[in-house]
Amino acid sequence: MSLDTTVPRSRRALLAAAAGAAVATVASALGRPAPVRAAAGDNLVLGQVNTSGIVTSILSPQGDGTVFAAMHQDAGIGISGVSKTGTGGWFRSVDGTALDVDGKAKFSRSGKVKIATGHYRADVTPAGGLGGTPLIFATLQYYRSGTYVVGVRANWPSTGKFRIYLNKPLTSSTYVAWIVVG
Q1: How far apart are CA 23 and CA 29, in angstroms?
Q2: With 0-12 CB in 10 A as exposed, 13-18 as middle and 19+ as buried, what is 134?
Q3: How many angstroms separate the first and last alpha carbons of the chain?
Q4: Beta bridge pairs of residue 174
Q5: Which of 70, 68, 63 is nearest to 88 (CA)?
Q6: Within 10 Å of residue 115's Cβ, how many Cβ atoms?
Q7: Spatial CA neighbour of 161 closest among 150, 174, 152
């Protein structure tokens, strides 16, 4: 559409054009989101950077106390997952690495036990006990010529414990490291 600049415009025409431009500007602004900055007490905005000095949690809609994710910037923890009855965290990758740890890893169901000189076994009670048929790995922490772990028996000598066996009695006390999976 071309404008004819030789024809004078009435005041009414100029006001109508200005009003139309104002409506177009408002409609354009409503069509795109404004920048968002959430702070403590504000809503969490997906697709945006949200900062807070306190814990931010996303809870299950079932009200069972399950926390899907919690970011703990003030406690030095990146993300934690907690569940009263289910899995606290679950990671999956179809074609890549589901979990990549760069740094130290800590497991509540791991540790080491000292087997004294003259002994060939140790009994361990891990945090939370044992259930079902867990995998338990154990390995000597020092070189002892001809000595090695021959087995680990779950729920022995009683339920919730496990026993680590060496192939022979030790000539010097030795630590054995262990980890429970499952």
Answers
A1: 10
A2: middle
A3: 74
A4: 115
A5: 68
A6: 21
A7: 152
CA angle 14, 19, 21 (to 5 degrees): 95
Q: State residue 166's pLDDT score.
A: 98
- The pLDDT tens digits for 140-169 are 999 999 999 999 999 999 999 999 999 999
- Lookup result for tokens 């540790």: 111
d(CA 112, CA 98): 28
**C-alpha 73, offset from chain centre:** 13
What b/e string do you get for 36-57 counting C-beta neighbours within 10 Å, with b at 16 or more? Answer: eeeeeeeeeeeeeeeeeeeeee
Count of CB atoms situated within 10 Å of the CB of 29: 9
In DSSP notation, 80-93 reads EEE-SSS-S-----
Q: What is the model's pLDDT at position 21?
A: 66
Give me the residues of the chain with pLDDT under 70, please. Answer: 1-11, 13-41, 52-73, 75-77
pLDDT of residue 43: 74
Nearest C-alpha neighbor of 66 from the set 45, 89, 44, 41 = 89
